[in-house]
Amino acid sequence: xxxxxxxxxxxxxxxxxxxxxxxxxxxxxxxxxxEQLARSDRRTARVEHRLTLILDHLGIPDDSSSHLPEVVxxxxxxxxxxxxxxxxxxxxxxLKEAKEAVEGMV
Length: 106
Description:
By secondary structure, the protein is an all-alpha fold.
């Protein structure tokens, strides 16, 4: 009976070691994907910022605020933080991007 228990324990340890190695590889992959997403977010923010500069230079009005009536209403009430939060919820933007966009609406 003791041998059976030791063999079972050995199998559990070997299985645990194998799973730990796989989990470590998955964690590394997830970290790489998160880094790629962060880079993509930064690139997108830069492109959007450049587009805003181009629109401003050409004198083309930014009508994006017309799609965000709740954000505009919060701004008119002086609730800037809530407006940024609402902008993020509607657009999925990051904090910095949302802050810049909301401040641009003022």
